[in-house]
Amino acid sequence: MFSLRQTLLATSVFSLLLPCLHAQPTTVTVQAGAVGKAISPDLVGIFFEDLSHAADGGLYAELIQNRSFDYSAADHNGWTSLTAWQLVQRDGGEGSVTIETADPLNTINSSYAVLTVAKAGSGSSASVGLQNEGFDGIAVKAGDRYNLSLFARQLTGSAAPLTVRLETKTGALLAEARLPVPSADWKKASAILVPSATDVDARLVVLATGPGKLALDMVSLFPEKTFHNHPNGLRPDLAQVIADLKPKFMRFPGGCLVHGDGLDNIYHWKDTIGPVEQRKGQSNIWHYHQSVGLGYFEYFQFCEDIGAKPLPVVAAGVCCQNSNYLVTHKYGIGQLGLPMEKMPAYVQEVLDLIEYANGPVTSTWGAKRAAAGHPEPFGLQYLGVGNEDKISPVFEERFRMIYDAVKAKHPEITVIGTVGPNPEGEDYEKGWKFANELHVPMVDEHCYKSPQWFWNNLQRYDAYDRSKSQVYLGEWAAHDDKRLSTLRSAIAEAAYLTSLERNADIVHFASYAPLLAKRNHTDWNPNLIFFSNTEVFPTINYHVQQLFSVNSGDTYLTTTVGHAATPVTVAASTVRDSKTGDLILKLVNGANVAKPLRIELAGAKKIPAAAFKTVLAYPNAMETNERVVQPQSSTMTVAPTFDYEAPANSLTVICLKSR
Ligand code: AHR
Prior knowledge:
8-stranded parallel β-barrel; globular; Immunoglobulin-like; binds alpha-L-arabinofuranose; 3 domains; alpha/beta; 35 strands; Jelly Rolls; single chain; TIM Barrel
């Protein structure tokens, strides 16, 4: 016999277990037989900004750092024209290196290195030279081909051939080539280097073999293997991981980098096209140097390669309101507007960008696109003007000038305005008011919040007025504790994405931000994809973006979740892809326990017996290791009504194939 105490204990343990054993399933009802609501087929895209070395030292495949000797303290405290370079004196050779600016290669990049060989030395190795350490070393693969090029000019002394060597950190030879004797004028020389061994930390050494003074500029080492084999192209592994997201659009070149740290730092697209040695690099608002080797042509080309609609963003004639922060230590007081007399030229610059992208080859800027190898238009449809600017009279006056000019000359272009850095507050309110006054077709909202904020705001866009501007959620991410990317943040993003799908009649685009960050160089956290010189680490959050992107549709089917309790931990959405007829259901469980769900496909006419299921789940919501949380795919049986247990902390995508 049990004692009363034992019975009570057993009863209370049982009642604790009860919710798990006999929990009533939460009903998810999909109006599967309904026509549904037309939504943006382009909801999920990417946001690219050169921060955290996303471009230089990252996606842009150049291996030489500071290739044109332009680094300075303005880029980064302590940097000079010789940062990443080192003088080499071997086998008795003696010499020095200086930076000069007289008679440069071109006036845009005026500084270059002068190597003075005082004593050539003797021995098998040539004597005096310059060594580049790359971006945290140079990673090369045995047998791959690397294009070495440089501009050289013999200033004094007897000209002799140059030797270029790829070496290990300790000086062992990996590849070597001789370049022709430099002339008295700037001349480009090139060679192919094929390393005999793989090395993740190699160096490039340029050696002069005769006494005298030699000028060097634009020293480049470029892998022949780039994404889609474009010269001056992109790192294939990184580009492929981005391509695998199947982004419907790509925003570039930022972010704060666009409006810049002060008026002189505004990003000007014209500085970023043409031969790389003629492009105008400048300091990056994230405190390093941007070579702009990855410039507007390469951005457009990448969009085309990955099937993403290009979405360039230009400054609205004002610089970032946080400009000069390192001096003032105050946010929000640094906005300045271009002087009014400069605005007509700036407005023209914006119009010229549209011509560069879309104009005929007979137009001034279309001809430049054709000269770069792309006579066909790039098909630009969208243009962002401004990036989370402070909505001030200075901003409004300049935005209006740009907006009116684009609207008048290019009514085919959808201009995207901006409504401040937060999803609420003064700039958000003022930005929306201003956009409504001007009837701006779309506005860019930014939203970096906690995972719980996203769960609490799943209804945000349900209430948006459909007669007003469409929304581009241009920068968003759930920031978990210590700004980590966790499974919890990824699942909150998945829940929010179900609400974006439901509202994709008004939310046209959404892009997680930032996209890329180099390990040990992160200016911002969290990020969607981390990388080193040789590896790529997509986060758990990456899989969420990918699952929504590759499982997108153009029609939303009303999906209701019968919520039993608060806080809400279950979210769902359903889309149909009218091209394939597939019906795709997303189910999100943000609880730490599995949730029994009953799915009702109301009014469905024909349901395939089997469906494809992909599940991203893990018991520990705070998991950050992307290698342990991976999507798993399988098939499952479905019926007009079927039960499904959503694992703890999970996103499940169920695709009912039409054929
Ligand atoms: O995504 C990182 C930064 O966040 C962007 O540059 C800026 O627009 C925002 O504040």
